[in-house]
Amino acid sequence: MAQYQFNSIGYIKSPYKQKFAIPRQPGLIAEACGSIELEADYADEGIVRGIEAFSHLWLVFVFHETADKGWSPLVRPPRLGGNTRKGVFATRATFRPNPIGLSVVKLDGVTRKNGKLQILISGLDLLDGTPILDIKPYLPYSDALPAANGGFADAAPETMMTVSMSENAEQFCQQQKHYPHLRTFIEKVLKQDPRPPYKKQRADIQHYGMTLYEFNIKWTVDGEHNHVTEIMQLP
Ligand code: SAM
């Protein structure tokens, strides 16, 4: 078996601080804004010359959070309710022989901050701190295949979930001048119902919490309704 060694060329800064609540694919929540912070060895401006002519990028990355958890040939896609098994190569599961992921994200710009070269991106489905192995421009003429068959995931997941917020939570969102889309972002994250399939069966009122950007968000789920009770700024 051939072996190859790769270096990470950079790391993701993402609003998603834990796996729970990250969408299952990129592009589903446009308000998820982050960046790729390039490693010093790759932080020469020349390395991104011409990149801003492209609207989207492919990111090749490591599923670093689960990389040491192994893999199995059959997986249970959450999309199918968590009970049906498919071959790992017929899924986008994180537990793979080589824990490598592939996501297309929107390119929002290139900047230098605190001496670091950053590529600004949005619509991501990546955990904060994800190591990036490679970046390639998205080529619509070749990469966009509208007639392609999407198998058991032929369209974006449908959701019946609704979202409301307490008055305090609404006010908190309105006050965040650096995050003008915070309310929409939280709403979209909750609408996709991030709970694992087995929790979706439960009839009782459930309490959850998550961190997005530097905010801790608490909410309850009652049937198909999410209610955000509290949002707090983390220290
Ligand atoms: N678009 C990618 C692909 O197809 O290879 C990722 C798809 S995978 C189903 C998306 C999930 O990966 C997210 O919902 C999140 O739970 C998980 N994820 C994102 N970044 C990760 C990381 N660095 N380590 C482990 N899991 C991660």
Give a quick precis of the structure.
With 235 residues, this protein is mainly β. The chain contains four helices and twelve strands.
Topology:
Elements lengths: L9 E4 L19 E6 L17 E7 L11 E2 L10 E2 L12 E14 L2 E7 L8 E7 L2 H4 L18 E4 L1 H9 L6 H10 L5 H4 L5 E7 L2 E8 L2 E9 L2
Parallel strand pairs: 9-12
Antiparallel strand pairs: 1-2, 1-8, 2-7, 3-6, 3-8, 4-5, 6-7, 10-11, 11-12
S-adenosylmethionine binds next to strand 6.
Commentary on this structure:
The longest helix has 10 residues. Helices cover 11% and strands 33% of the residues. It is mainly beta. S-adenosylmethionine binds next to strand 6.
- This entry's quaternary arrangement is single chain
Terminal-residue CA separation:
48 Å
Determine the number of helices (DSSP H or I, runs of at least 4 residues). 4
Topology order in helix (H) and strand (E) letters: EEEEEEEEHEHHHEEE
- How many extended strands? 12
Poorly predicted ranges:
none
Taking strands numbered 1, 2, ... along the chain, how are they ordered across the largest sheet?
A: 1-2-7-6-3-8
Strand content: 25-35%
Shape: globular
Pfam family, one: TrmO_C
Family: Belongs to the tRNA methyltransferase O family.
Keywords: S-adenosyl-L-methionine
Protein name: tRNA (N6-threonylcarbamoyladenosine(37)-N6)-methyltransferase TrmO
Describe this protein with a few key phrases.
235 residues, 6-stranded antiparallel β-barrel, 12 strands, globular, binds S-adenosylmethionine, YaeB_N_sf, tRNA (N6-threonylcarbamoyladenosine(37)-N6)-methyltransferase TrmO
